Amino acid sequence: KEQLLRKMALPHSLKPIDQYLIRAKELQASVPVVAHYCKLYALEQGLKIRDKTDPQTGKFLGGLMTIVESEKAQLGHVEDGQTQCELLAMKIFDKADAEDRAGRANKITARNFRIAALLMDVCKVFGELPVDLQDTQKYAKYKAVEILRCIQQGIKPPPGPPGREEDELGDTMTAEVGDQPNVSPQMPLPPGGGGGMAMPPAPASAPPAQQPNPPPRIMYLLQLLQPLQPRPALCHRPTN
Q1: Distance, C-alpha 203 to centroid of its chain
Q2: pTM for the whole structure
């Protein structure tokens, strides 16, 4: 099913979820649990933004739903799914932040900031993000765009947080880091110092509180998708 899904062209209306499917593919071998939640988040977002008049959209989401359902059965009950997602997001963020503060920021640093922010999006499948994680995500988005802007202008990216007034960053996270968004970010959201914002605790010293996995979502998602592509066999399949 997954191989078949890869052969299908991603419908235009679902382009925003491609970035999460790419992350899932990258993480599948090393962190299958996080990869699974990347697909689940992509599915949930796809159901929200889908073009209900396009049959290919329903077909693509139906295939993705089958994959998510199959993986859920294979993984069984995962007690630390939220912790795995948050720890990986913070690990990637910390690596990029250390490079940036040391004055060694480059395109890879920007890409890692962006990936960390995307994985924090994935953490939303467990509920609303804690305030400290929201702040860290905003800062990661800002740094990803700021570093690329500096590189494109041929100047050295300034390390660490800026000292400017908060402004609207804009939606720049749907483009790959290799793209060239026409954005001049002005968002002082440092995770420590410079803007008066407290640094989010590092996962090693203060791991996120473990919470039970969310209740099964498959039947709920099937009900949302059913007007597009009825799947009687799946609708009657037990979720547990």
Answers
A1: 18
A2: 0.68
